Amino acid sequence: MGQTQQTGSTEEIDIKALQDMYKKFVIECPSGVLFLHEFKRFFGVDATGEASDYAENMFRAFDKNGDNTIDFLEFVAALNLVFRGDLEHKLRWSFKVYDKDGNGYVDRSELRSIIDSISRIKRGSKTDVSEPHLTVDEVVDRILDAVDVDRDGTVSMEEFIKGAQQDPWVLSMLRLDMNPTGWLREHRRKSAYF
Question: Which residues contact 6 (CB under 8 A, 6 or more apart)?
């Protein structure tokens, strides 16, 4: 069994698994970083396909330092969040996916863009993002009504997190973002990362 190292929480990191993951990452990404086009190719996403916008937003959320690449540490941090993160951490990550311009707020067009992408992905995989009778705009309106507490037309991270935690429907609408593992598995090329 691999070596383990205790972290601040009760989680354990398997050092051997981490070393193996790094070897595979370097094979897939000899430059040591993953660029957007490689990220899309790695997960089997067409450059202009239904999942392209969503993949771009996921990439941006994984790119912690904003250098338009994902290095190994960012990659591992993202996987750790996906597999081990608690609800609040996943909501914080989800917020970053929605906040496309990085200004700290999600406006109607950003929310609509991501909800539309999720809807197209789910339609493509035969699982609908919402109740059959709700349009993307109706879903966006309902989410904004539930989470935009100060009614300023934008959603702060605090509003986003509280709204999702307090409203099961809102949380269910964010389900794909809350657990991107399924999406990643469905859209990746053959890889042993997951």
Answer: 12
167 CB contacts (<8 Å, ≥6 apart)? Answer: 146, 147
Determine the Cα–Cα distance for residues 158 and 95; give it in Å rounded to an integer: 10
Average pLDDT of the residues in 94-108: 91
The radius of gyration of the chain from alpha carbons, rounded to an integer in Å, stands at: 17
What's the CATH number of domain 87-125+133-176, 1.10.238.10, 1.10.10.60, 1.20.1260.10, 3.30.930.10? 1.10.238.10
Residue 49 main-chain phi, psi, to 5 deg: -75, 180
pLDDT-derived band of residue 53, with 50, 70 and 90 as boundaries?
A: confident
Of the candidates 165, 175, 103, the one whose C-alpha atom is nearest the C-alpha of residue 139 is: 175
* Single-letter residue type at 25: F
CA dihedral sign of residues 78, 82, 86, 92: positive
Between 8-17, 18-27, 32-41, the lowest mean confidence (pLDDT) is in 8-17
Structure tokens, 10: 């009760």
Q: pTM score, two decimals? A: 0.69
